[in-house]
Write a structure and sequence with these properties.
It contains three helices and twelve strands; from the N terminus they run E-E-H-H-E-E-H-E-E-E-E-E-E-E-E. The protein has 208 residues and is of the alpha+beta class. The longest helix has 18 residues. The chain starts with a strand and ends with a strand. The relative contact order is 0.19.
Length: 208
Amino acid sequence: MAVLPPERAVFDLAHLAGLSTAPDLLLIVSERSSYVLHNLAALDVQDDWRYALQPPENDRYSPVTDMASPEWALYREVAEDAQTQIIEVGRMPIYGIIDAIGTVDTYPVPGAGAYERSFGPVPDDEMWELQLAEAIVSGGTAAAMGLKVVSEWTSVNLNIFASLASGVSNRWSGRVILSPGQMVTFDYSGATAGATLISRIWFAHLIQ
């Protein structure tokens, strides 16, 4: 049995065994606290004498010492996971919403064919969170419409709608953050002559 120093933390391996290993918790700390956590992860989290085979009783506990035991393997896994996840932590931007905006583009099709209707680009001093997009073909049809986020170098498909009937609302909803220079593009194909393409987006202005 080992004596528990009052200033040292001891981790119960039986309790650790029942906890999730998925890195799905958000920890928000200052740079100073992050520095302390990095030092703890680099050294103290690897101290096998801090891992107990059962909860301490009367300030005494049994530390894991058998390197061939399942408890030792669990201790190594816990320590390495904690060390990796804390050391690999990055700066996560935290955003607030300034306002929410809905905007619409109405385009009478001059002749059958393919057409792109775009919103943006996002100004250099702004960030947008796209929350909803809607496409309606009025007075005609379209073979398909691809909703995209487009930048100078790449294009990312958010959704593809096929066989757009006249007057039917085709909606996408989600949360996508757009950086300066990016655009939201409605890529219509097979639009019939005389139709009107109605494209809408709803987005929030973000502030960091």
